[in-house]
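User: Show me sequence and structure for the first protein, then do the same for the second.

Assistant: Starting with the first protein.
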Amino acid sequence: MAKIDFKKLGGEIKKNELSGAYFLYGSEQYLLSRYLERLLKRVVPGMAAFNLQRFEAEKRELDWSAVEDAAQNLPMMAPRKAVVLHDLNPDQLPAEELKRLQKLVEELPESTVLVIYVTGFELLVKASRKVQNFLKFMEKNGTVVEFPPLSKGDLAKYLSGEAAKADCFLPSAAAGRLVESVGNDLTTLLKDLEKLVAFTGAGEITAETVDALVEKTIDATAFDLANAALRGDLDTALHAVAALKAQRAEPIAVAGALNSAFLDLYRAKCALAAGKNAAEAAADFGYNPRVRFRVDNAFRSAARTEIGALRRGIGLLHELDLRLKSSKADSYELLEAALVRLRTGDG
């Protein structure tokens, strides 16, 4: 009984060494769904119509008597059954219902595996003592598995492994380029990988192929744009603006993403000066785990930037935001003018 990661969960599923109760949560939805499916297939390899019972808890209208009956009833013609509760939020459970759930977990028959999982909302662990206490209870009486966003390195390894299954070789550099372009959402990454595999057929997927076929997110392009502007590379910056315009990105959204990129760099610069690492900075500034890659990118670039240029850029982008929302001038021309001002130091 403990808190484990998804790799250990996979090992336990493979060995058929299962806990009586599970709580699965985290922002990496693809892996959570995949391991949930593997877990349930191990618990109920057949007769799912009789031995797999699902309950939706999103609207807090659970029939607790039905859940308790499902957990206590014996499986039909099988050694085990599964009872699944989806999107149960311990933070919103009344005290009486929480006690019923805890008693249910403590008194589970050996023939029942209870699986509670969350995909419809973010579980606010740090902000809720109630959630923290519930997780401790589940760790003591069952198994807790968190599915946080994978690091860039782990994502690259995972993508390379998936490419290999399709007889394609995805080098770490190309996998890293894919992550930098798309972000760390595994579902989106796998869709783009499927496109790359289809184009390549078999053999090596090069970084050039990634650049040619994968459309960068606004955040990724804005970060490139910010770096180009800060190092005085106006041609590259304006080329990035043209690419965003070709994608029909809204200028206000582009300016917002560009402002976020400058703020990421500024925070990273301040964190470096204070002797903090990327993980500490992400926690201090309250970054959502899903955008942790932005912090990592900023830390790689911040050392090469000047604090004064970052401050000037943030000021210019604030002014740009006001103009975009009040002026009738062409929005992209206003964006380009702001970049020119940043390049010339006219702030």
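Switching to the second protein now.
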Amino acid sequence: MIKLGEKIKSLRKQKNISQEVFANYLGVSFQAVSKWENGNTMPDVTLIPAIASFFGVSTDELFDFNLYEIEKNVDAIVTEHTKYWDIDLNKSEQILREGLKKYPGNDILLTCLMGILLDLDRIDEVIRIGIALVESTKYDDLRFDAYRIIAMAYKEQGEYQAAKDAIEHIPEIYFTKLEVAAHLLEGEEMYEAAQKQKNISADDLIDMLIIAGKYLKENGETEKANSQFRIALKVMDAFEEDFIENKWFKATVYEYTNEQRKEIETLLAE
């Protein structure tokens, strides 16, 4: 596999630009670029998406990775990190960081890392990675997800307008890939799509009912608010008889909404 510094040098010469011009674009010194090209140092991981974007290549192309191999390995890293999401965020972050050492600038790993860093309250780093990612990724779904996480980060910082601006980059979508698959595919593929969309839809509906209820409660419309909370409880109760498809889920909607149930019961009691 070609070394990153050699690849950068080759791409830079193909564009017929100097180290100074390239360095100015990245906001680094030309000495830093020289060290990369000579193999003495490596670019910071947060610069990889910008480097790939500058040369008009994917991060995988930048590193000359076998695309099939990287997809398989990245999927394994993502699966491993999710095991620790709810129990050890630092371990989850460590797994993603190790993955990024192997595949610097990988869009999927960076998106996952943004989510972990948000939970760890490392807001500035979330925004920095997110801005680089939305400018470099070639995948719309990852770009929109990055904007979603950026918006959440700005909200945590109390920057309401910045959060609103980030949300404006996310298109309004009235159907999902899973919905279309459930309606149009057959057999196991249809069933898997339906099961996944069912849980996502139930989770979203419960969240929206709680959000609407809280707004109404804050504005003194207690009876309307309580109606939203009661509907949310009924949705949860409707899933009491549901079963777990272990291939895709760790719990049913009824089981993993326990915290929301407690929150609603507290809101109704106030």
